[in-house]
UniProtKB/TrEMBL annotation:
InterPro entries referenced in this protein's UniProt entry, alphabetically: TerB-like
Domain of life: Bacteria
Sequence intervals crossing the membrane: 62-80, 100-122, 217-238
Protein name as annotated: Co-chaperone DjlA N-terminal domain-containing protein
Biological classification of the source: Bacteria, Pseudomonadati, Myxococcota, Polyangia, Polyangiales
Keywords, alphabetical: Membrane, Transmembrane, Transmembrane helix
Length: 391
């Protein structure tokens, strides 16, 4: 049995963070120390008109800077290749000429790539910090709150594109049902995305352009491609950061609204709510910080010892079928909250919700999840009222 009582669930995870994550949190803390505290007019999960405008300004500026950084880096590397072709010729007559050619091209490419990466990391951290303050949150101003420290770490991982932790938490293994081959392929595709895009564009240019034009300008084909990728990745990073900023507040709001419906839960019903979140984590194969926040909020209200199979989705579905209708509805509401709290609603989560609805004798329906997800991502507020009306 895994105990969930006697301590604050938010303080249960004490694994050492990666170096980059720790450096990111340290940078956040220094930025916060030099700025006035944030005074939010409403809950962090609610974005008012002024906050939306400020967020748009932050995102637009960061995307433009990231695109320019990619364009400059690619242009310098391309310029080095063109210069090397003129100095040493396209056909290298000897090993010495070849070595000097690649020393010039490789040296400039490596230096510009390293400078680009360092700049993107720094600017991404700075933009994420600005974005969190624009949304009304600054968890970096103090180290007293364990929730604030967790959000700071989650935002640092988002800014630096670091993966979420894979360790077991409260007996929940995010990779319990994961395919190792699928994870490896996804990682490989992520690493080569820019290279494949630039290669494809170069092949197209070779087919469409004349020989002289190709020889002169082909190296510069990577400039718009790299700029576009940088801009897209930056936008994705900041979207994810915004979702992580709003997540803990939304988790408290949603879980609080579900538990405050005046329903007396049985011991099996209480554990079913924990199983709902754990099953969502297992199905997504990822311990997203917002999912972790939902799990923590549920465990703060459920002090029963947790069984070893708390993260077995099949057991969750079997237990769900035995619960009375009121407890089934609460479990489905918790599952719905967990499914959308990371800003996505994946096919695996849809299957789990369909299976859970079927186990309760309901007709599967994805529309409630889509409504809740759109409201959360938009920061539209009233999540507590919406969750009570769904399902």
């Amino acid at each position: 049995m895994v105990s969930a009582s006697g301590t604050d669930p938010a303080a249960q995870v004490e694994t050492k963070a990666p170096l980059l994550e720790r450096l990111g949190v340290l940078y956040f803390r220094r930025l916060s120390a030099s700025l006035p505290r944030v005074a939010a007019a409403d809950a962090v999960s609610v974005l008012n008109a002024e906050e939306r405008r400020h967020l748009s300004v932050v995102v637009r500026g960061a995307v433009i800077r990231a695109s320019l950084a990619g364009a400059v880096s690619a242009a310098l590397a391309a310029g080095a290749e063109v210069l090397a072709d003129r100095l040493f010729g396209a056909e290298h007559a000897s090993f010495d000429v070849t070595a000097r050619y690649w020393a010039l091209v490789g040296g400039v490419t490596i230096v510009t790539a390293v400078a680009e990466i360092l700049y993107l990391y720094w600017d991404s951290l700075r933009a994420v910090h600005q974005l969190s303050r624009a949304a009304g949150l600054d968890p970096f101003a103090t180290e007293a709150s364990s929730d604030g420290a967790a959000v700071a770490a989650a935002l640092a991982r988002a800014a630096l594109e670091l993966p979420n932790p894979t360790e077991r938490v409260f007996g929940v293994d995010p990779r319990r049902e994961a395919s190792k081959i699928k994870l490896a392929i996804a990682s490989l595709l992520y690493k080569v995305k820019v290279s494949v895009t630039n290669f494809a564009v170069k092949v197209l240019v070779r087919r469409l352009a004349g020989r002289a034009l190709v020889r002169t300008w082909l190296p510069f084909v990577a400039v718009p491609g790299t700029a576009a990728w940088n801009g897209l990745v930056c936008w994705i990073v900041l979207r994810e950061a915004k979702i992580r900023v709003m997540g803990p507040s939304a988790a408290r709001e949603l879980v609080g609204a579900i538990f405050d419906q005046g329903i007396t839960l049985s011991a099996e019903g209480r554990l079913a709510l924990v199983r709902a979140v754990a099953s969502s984590i297992v199905r997504t194969e990822d311990l997203h910080p917002n999912l972790h926040a939902v799990l923590v909020e549920v465990l703060r209200r459920v002090d029963d010892p947790l069984p070893e199979d708390i993260d077995d989705s099949r057991v969750f579905l079997d237990v769900l079928a035995r619960l009375p209708p009121a407890e089934q509805r609460m479990a489905l509401q918790i599952l719905l909250s967990a499914a959308i709290i990371d800003g996505r609603y994946t096919s695996a989560e849809k299957r789990l919700l369909h299976e859970a609805q079927a186990a309760c004798g309901r007709t599967p329906d994805v529309r409630p999840a889509e409504r809740l997800r759109r409201a959360f991502v938009a920061g539209a507020g009233s999540l507590d009222e919406l969750i009570r009306t769904l399902l």
